[in-house]
């Protein structure tokens, strides 16, 4: 998996994830995701390049969302791939839900 910074239309930095977002990469990606959330006033993660995601990957995204909420920020999970949409649908989680709603699920 590669991680690449990109910019959205407003010029905000958006971290792009490519490849697998699975248990095999969770330890590697956790500090990268949390650092991106902590550094940006409007954190964004582009998920269009995620080819596979498992429960560890979903948990990692929910952790990043909670971290953003603890900093009074909203994490945008942008352009989810089909794999990401399918996983969030399987767990009945909304991709654009605030951290409080995700924690209650």
SSE pattern:
EEHEHEHH
Number of helices: 4
The overall pLDDT average reads 85
Number of domains: 1
* Alpha-carbon distance between the two ends: 28 Å
Fraction of helical residues: 40-55%
Give me the CATH fold name: Transcription Regulator spoIIAA
Taking strands numbered 1, 2, ... along the chain, how are they ordered across the largest sheet? 1-2-3-4
Q: Indicate the proportion of strand residues.
A: 25-35%
| Outline type | globular
Structural class: alpha/beta
- CATH-scheme architecture: 2-Layer Sandwich
The CATH top-level class label: Alpha Beta
How many E-type strands? Answer: 4
Please outline the major beta sheet. Answer: 4 strands, mixed
Low-confidence spans: pLDDT under 50, at least 5 residues? 7-11, 101-105
Protein name: STAS domain-containing protein
Organism: Aquincola agrisoli
Domain STAS: 15-105
Pfam families: STAS_2
Top keywords for this entry?
MlaB-like_STAS; 105 residues; alpha/beta; 4 helices; four-stranded mixed sheet; disordered C terminus; Transcription Regulator spoIIAA; single chain; STAS domain-containing protein; STAS_dom; STAS_dom_sf; globular
